[in-house]
Amino acid sequence: MIGGSIGLALKEKSPDTEIRVWARREAALSGITAAGFATMASTSLDAVLRGAKLVVLCTPVEVMPDLAALLLPPLDSDALVTDAGSVKQVVLDAMVPVLKHQFIGAHPIAGSDRAGIEAARADLYEGATCVVTPTSDSPRSAVERVTAFWKFLGCRVIEMSAAEHDARLAFTSHLPHVAAAALAMTVDRSAPDWTDFVGGGFRDSTRIAASNPDLWTGILLANETSVTRSIAEMQEILQEFRVAVESRDANTLRRLFAEARTSRNRLNSDLDGI
Amino acid sequence: MIGGSIGLALKEKSPDTEIRVWARREAALSGITAAGFATMASTSLDAVLRGAKLVVLCTPVEVMPDLAALLLPPLDSDALVTDAGSVKQVVLDAMVPVLKHQFIGAHPIAGSDRAGIEAARADLYEGATCVVTPTSDSPRSAVERVTAFWKFLGCRVIEMSAAEHDARLAFTSHLPHVAAAALAMTVDRSAPDWTDFVGGGFRDSTRIAASNPDLWTGILLANETSVTRSIAEMQEILQEFRVAVESRDANTLRRLFAEARTSRNRLNSDLDGI
Q1: Last residue of one domain, picked from the residues B140, B160, B180
Q2: Whole-complex ipTM
Q3: Inter-chain touch A263–B188, beta carbons under 8 Å
Q4: Which of A50, A84, A104, A184 is an S-S bond match for B263, by CB 3.0 to 4.6 Å?
Q5: Which of A88, A169, A190, A227 to mutate to test the interface with B (most CBs of B within 10 A)?
């Protein structure tokens, strides 16, 4: 979905650009070809990379370290590599020692619980935030070329360090996946036949609990410290609710729910950051 | 929204039925009249209730005890009273001693984070589950009349005790509201200016955190024991995730996320209960 959406958007915005797609498995090639954006699709890294100007890695983050060494030989010396991984420090740690100044990490914050080329959409990145995470050594010209690429797809680009990106996304993205999963499990463990008693609230709140288990295991383990902290903070806030309910403290409960409403509305405002 | 949607649905399905609306505040009457379904709208309980065949209470649950005594004098002896409250035991405890066999509690599981007559929709109850909660003394004829009313609005009706209803809804509805609120607060307390870093996952997972604080304070305190238990169970499951992340236990994390996906898909299946 992530890579396919980039292909569809590129094809729409720049029909003459040559778009080559690499896939690990032969079985994936027919779906990619059917999506209609690829000039060529192949399981040969060499065939896809030779002469490429910009390479975008859209694999799960735990696969990227193995890819780094495989990219280097076929890559042109003036080519740049970026990625769409949900965590950035582990990706930089794997890529930068091998690819040096040719790698500029990125994370377009867009997606859903769906996966696969069939879920790709040409407008996935339209209006999305893309965080670009250069190192202090990254050449400005390389940062600017990668930034221009993500902007061309429709993203608003924000630049920050990989560490800062990971600390923030632990709260805004990784924790929500843990919370949705824990909520779905709590209800289902209490009784698995309560389908008739869930409403729209449960449905929306647990949508991302249907996400890919392998993908999210990789993301959480690549951002262990911040994710652990975010889970601990949510447990503490749940404890505030629990104590207020147990002690029948209406004032505290009202204050907690009012804070939650303010928080939710602030974080979902369509205005630019405050 | 709850009462207005009943009015709109009734008007659509049975245009000749007389629909009278009572509101506590004079200021609410113009909105009700503008919605177009009411034969009359008034702040006089007496004027609205006299000669009524079926009365549907759509107030917050904490208001219902005060209403019970006010309903009795004007009510016809063959009239029935039902309600749309999100908890049932406290409502029955307040209503049945006063209204006796004339009260049959109900909870149509439908709604959203929105409120007020402007959010009313004629199709809100179409396909929704409505739990009807008679006591062991309730006359079958009364239960059947109230059941027929909710079915007429489009609901699938399930009958169970008020206590059983409350124990289930603590998990399927009340806990999701606490979880959404806690998640929004956790992210916002960590840094209130992270609007650019939230994606669709956070947005969906926290939609119901924007719900009315007074309403949900009332609901939680009216279902204290079961809500406390549901929060405790979610805290424990969050702890399973936290330990797995901290100890870098990929197998356990993968198993937890896989369980969550199964749970989510089972509880949101459109098939009838398993």
Answers
A1: B160
A2: 0.88
A3: yes
A4: A184
A5: A190
